[in-house]
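SEQUENCE-TO-STRUCTURE ENTRY
===========================

Backbone structure tokens: a row of integers, each naming the local backbone shape at its residue.

Task: work out the structure tokens from the sequence, keeping to the layout shown below.
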Amino acid sequence: MLFFLALGPNHGATQQTDEEKRLRELFLKSRQKMEIVQSPTPSPKPTPSPAPSPLRPFHYASPETASPKSAPPSPTVRPSPTQAEEVPSPTPSPQPKSVASQAAATPPTQRESPSPTARKKKHWFFFGRRDDDSIVVQKSGAEAQKDLVPAPGGGDVRWQYLTPGIRKAIDDARVARNRWKYIIVHNSGTRQGNARIFDYYHRYVRRMPNGLAYHFVIGNGTSSGNGQIEIGNRWVRQLNGGHVHSDYLNYISIGICLVGDFNRDLPTKAEYEALDELIRYLRRRVGKVDDHYSIVRGHKEINPRPTDCPGNRFPLNWLHRSFPD
């Protein structure tokens, strides 16, 4: 046993050395057979050619040389009976082409206006208006003036609230004859306000496209002068009012709004006087309708729906005495 222990380590070392030698010889033999191969030089990448465009290049060509296959034939459109009456159908050609393809195939320098011998398109007239445009037959200046009421002027009357600027604005409006049959008096239902405030409310809250529903507003001294007369856009442009619950009445009635809540208060003295001046001047300005001056009424006396405007405390009897029918 001691003999084997003494020989064991040396014997293992000898085997290990012989194995290493054998592997080393194999490695040397294999290395002698190896050849040095140069690394390949990378070849330049070919430049990719652009992909062919799906659209063919455009070239001008005269109508004579253009191929009939250059553009698809235009679809056949069957005219309606009215179109058949207005425009005679053209004689079909053996090789039809659409208008767009002919215009594209002809250079700009070779395009010409239609021949003067081409047949003119017929047009139909409906109440002074052609069916293909917006030309309206209008009256001459003399005839148009006959339909307007001339401004009567201030005369010798001394106006306190109708200032020269207010009278000029009233006179400058193009008032149609026999239109304004009524003058309607309202109250705002508020203790303060003016034309600008009411215009904002009507335009953006009540969504009225023309804004202020009245033609005139008379202030009470809160947001405008006491008795101050303000002219609305509806009078300047002679538009329908928006103060009565009837389209017809809005067309023939002038609306005057006094600032105030006349269920609780009375109009101021200046409002009475300004209203008196304004109504007298407007009746002269619009002229007589059916042989009498414009009829003056409170809102609740003419409105189709029940209302308390111009307020239960507003003196309608004074209004009727001052402006009889």
Notes: The CA atoms of residues 37 and 43 lie 17 Å apart. The first strand starts at residue 125 and ends at 126. Strands lie at 125-126, 129-130, 182-187, 216-220, 226-231, 253-258, 295-298. Residues 178-322 form a domain with the Lysozyme-like fold (CATH 3.40.80.10).
